Amino acid sequence: MSDISAPPITCAEPGSFPWGVFHERHPALIRRIEQALPYGPAERRALAELLRESRHDLVATLPPDAPDLALWQVWGKEHFGRPWPSLPFLWSESYFYRRLLEATGYFTGAWQGVDPFAPFKRAELAGDAFAADLAALDARESLTEAEREHALLTTALWGNLADLGFTITATASGPTGALAADDSAALWPLLDGGLVHVVADNAARELLADLALIDHLLASGRAGEVGLMVKPHPYYVSDATATDVLACLARLTAGSGEAARVGARLTQALRDGRLRLWTHPFACAPLPYRDMPDDLRREFAAAKVTVMKGDLNYRRLAGDRHWPPTTPFAEVTGYFPGPVAALRTVKSDVVTGLTPQTATTLDAQTPTWRTAGTHALIQVRTGTGAGFSRGS
Question: Where on the tree of life does the source sit, at the highest rank (predicted)?
Fold first, then answer.
């Protein structure tokens, strides 16, 4: 198994992608939130203070009445009181979003339970692009089984480009269809009618693509049961919660043709237990999956394969570190307690599992390819992992 001596990615270097997230993306996000929801002076002051602290000051702890204080005292014990830029980017970006929820009163007071990202999710659900995605479901009926499976997998993969956090500052107009790695041939043999876990990333358009894929896995018998892991509360801008799943299902069932049929089948699958929504506090942890608790390890170990969707899940799966891009994917995920697949549009620095020729060519011809959302990865590790030894 690969050691973890590769240095963690931080946002300390001016001009780097992580630095841009804190100095460009986060201010733009706060402006959009304040325009979308009528937060009062107290919430606006708290948001401004979060921006100031995260760029210029030391990391402050959560308030004493925070419902998840005990968890964060463990997750952040090495980081509180230190400068934000010196910390691992995975931790600091995650904690920024936790603090954003605190600033907007998500956990307490009159704004309790109000998702600060809900206006963006609703707009995407109501948009023309989502309507076109619903209509496109009809086209798959004319495809062969192999063509249908390829289309569904590809759509679920590139659906990750609909990440609302990414599009706040992105300039890419859309996917190029370029795969930097493609292990899809190794994925399908793992689907033999057992349990499949899908770890969701974003709501709305990406979630629609994920649900269409899940519907096919269940309807075709590729999976006997699917566990769709969502976030227990809002996290990054468009991360999917159970509420978002229900909203997406409502749009499906209110549609016509194949959209309505998919919605009806998935609704029934929820009722009879073949599709199960589940979550875990670690879904919103600022840590790599290498550090997951044993109960979550057991959950993943029970599946024939766990499908990790999106860029953040990839960062947590591989470890958000400066790996040489040719570091084998199977090595950096060797700790995972079962077969695992990553479907990821590349939108941040960490990359593993490339051939030397691919890595050299991409870095030479398109230096920004890791953060532009123009390339994607389908990577699969078919082994059973190293068991439950935390940090192995």
Answer: Bacteria
* Domain presence at residue 316: yes
Q: Where does the pLDDT of residue 187 fall: very low under 50, low under 70, confident under 90, or very high at 90 and above?
A: very high
> Is 200 a residue whose pLDDT tops 60?
yes
Does the structure show a pLDDT above 50 at 114?
A: yes
Which residue, 103, 138, 153, sits at the end of a domain? 103
Helix, coil or strand: residue 137: helix
Instruction: Name the 3-class secondary structure at 231.
Output: strand
User: Which residues face 196 on adjacent strands?
Assistant: 226, 305
| Residue entry with tokens 């919430």 | 43
* Residue 223 sits in the same domain as residue 316: yes
pLDDT, tens only, 71-101? 999 999 999 999 999 999 999 999 999 999 9
Does 305 share its domain with 224? yes
- Contacts (Cβ under 8 Å, ≥6 apart) of 16: none
264 and 376, same domain (yes or no): yes
Averaged pLDDT for residues 153-173: 65
Give me the CATH number covering residue 289: 3.40.50.10880
> How far is Cα 238 from Cα 120, in angstroms, rounded to an integer?
8
Q: What is the pLDDT of residues 328-385, one digit of tens each?
A: 999 999 999 999 999 999 999 999 999 999 999 999 999 999 999 999 999 999 986 5
Helices (H), ranges, the chain: 17-20, 26-36, 41-56, 69-75, 89-103, 118-126, 128-136, 145-158, 164-167, 184-187, 205-220, 242-253, 257-272, 294-301, 310-318, 329-332, 356-365
One domain, residues 131 and 270:
yes
CA dist 347 and 351 (Å) reads 10
Q: 221 lies in which domain range?
A: 118-381
Give mean pLDDT, residues 17-40: 97
Q: State the Cα–Cα distance between residues 25 and 20, nearest whole angstrom.
A: 7
CA distance 338 to 383: 6
Domain co-membership, 91 together with 128: no
Final residue belonging to a domain, choices 103, 132, 163:
103
- 99 shares its domain with 126: no
Q: Is residue 1 part of a domain?
A: no
Same domain, 147 and 35: no
Dihedral sign for Cα 55, 318, 298, 215, please.
Answer: positive
